[in-house]
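Repro:
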Amino acid sequence: MWYTLDPMRLLFIFLDGVGLGADDPSINPLVSASMPNLVNLLAGQRMLANAAPLETPRATLVGLDACLGVEGVPQSATGQAALLTGRNVPAEIGYHYGPKPDLPVADILQNGNLFRHLAQAGRGAVLLNAYPPSYFAAVESGRRLYSAIPLAVASAGIPLKTAADLYAGQALSADFTGWGWRERLKRLDTPVLTSVEAGGRLATLATAYDFSFFEYWLSDYAGHYQDMVGACNLLTTFDQVLGGLLAAWDDDAGLILVTSDHGNLEDLSTRGHTTNPVPALVIGASELRRRFTAGLHDLTGIAPAIARLLLGSAGL
């Protein structure tokens, strides 16, 4: 157990379906994409299997086992539930499952996730993704189920961000910039940010909370589509967001965590998920990083590490 003298904050950027893959530009867009901010952060390295573990002046990169000792290929619902609860959810229910939680996974999520734990401790926690009116209507009608992350947030009594929050600058769209709302949802009055501005917005919004979470699910879709050009474009956007975030982030005030639930995007030779480890990229002051990453080796270590940072206790 370890304690911090001053209040800490953590920004959790969840990259859906991104593993640590091979140094092969023919299948891995993390080799090919223009990502100067990430490469600079990693002292010239790419976010690949052969780079981890890695320690640089501002970042630590370790690989996390996403299989958790359960036969089969990791899936979204059980992987995300493991990240948010610290429990080996696939082992408890006996299988990997996804994309949306089934009843056993939903029961685990609703009774002990990180958002609920922090809220009960009086800490500010938020999901920074904005959801359009059509999303809430579909959930209310039963035509759509919550995925694991919004289910955890809603079950903790934390309101999901809405279009009004996005327009007021208090949330971000799933693509960071707002263009997706204009192009796909036809909401032509949606405010649009540059990728660098979106990174700065993330940093600004995170200062109001102890724990902030952003879900970038487009990365998993690009992996399923096996779209190298689209995947590289997504990663370049993320890298520009990262650049804006790093320029605005105070390393002494807390950590940025970038991680995932399972592999996919790093191997476009297959449409499915992979069994590759996933990255845990931790950014911030060196001593905070050292304590946070100590003992991290699989998805179940993330929630306890966050609880130690923010509450001084690993219990959930």
